[in-house]
Amino acid sequence: MKPQHVLPLGIFLTIAVAFGAAFYLNLDPSETPFAIKDRPVPEFDLPPALDGTPGLSSADLKGQVTIVNFFASWCAPCHEEHPVLMRLAERTGVAVVGIDYKDKRPAVAEWFARDGNPFSRVGFDETGRVFIDWGLAGVPETFVVDRAGNVVWRYQGALNEAVVAKGLEPMLESLK
């Protein structure tokens, strides 16, 4: 490399690293924009994913604050966040419901029989239509729906206690 090219390349790399670091440090999955923010829940009506647990429809998400979690038994991060969802269901007093995405019902039943079911309702999104209508990129993703039935918060990825403490619980508190 010629010496006269070193300085411009160094400046370019410094600027690129600065922009990359600024973008990375400010990247918060709960803050990323999403198409249905502050809009009514897309209409849907899903059959139950489990025997003995009701299915889920958009009408079920009106009149109360609700945590909606999209998951699948084949999803490793979904298994990671499962204990967090179990604790949320016990301690928040907020309805926690699930949408099972493109899964096999026996696998979900086996998982929940072994580790517990955090959801009061679990809809079975066999075709993935609800997944698309809500604008998901993958599972797990978690949303908060307000009393009016509007989607007000989203988190992409597995919930953990830090996300719950810094993002989800303050959102739930603001909706009381």
Q: Could you characterize what this model shows?
A:
With 176 residues, the chain is α/β, with parallel strands linked by helices. The chain contains five helices and eight strands; from the N terminus they run αββββαβαβαββα. The strands form two sheets. It has a six-stranded mixed sheet with strand order 1-8-7-4-5-6. Strands 2-3 form a two-stranded antiparallel ribbon. The longest helix is centred in the first third of the chain and has 24 residues, at 3-26. It is elongated and about 75 Å long. The chain starts with a helix and ends with a helix. The model is unreliable at 21-27 (pLDDT under 50).
Brief overview:
The chain has 176 residues and is of the alpha/beta class. It is built from five helices and eight strands; from the N terminus they run H-E-E-E-E-H-E-H-E-H-E-E-H. 40% of the residues lie in helices and 20% in strands.
List the helices and strands and how they pair.
Elements: H1 3-26, E1 39-40, E2 45-46, E3 56-57, E4 66-71, H2 76-91, E5 95-101, H3 105-115, E6 122-125, H4 129-133, E7 141-145, E8 150-156, H5 161-174
Parallel strand pairs: 4-5, 5-6
Antiparallel strand pairs: 1-8, 2-3, 4-7, 7-8
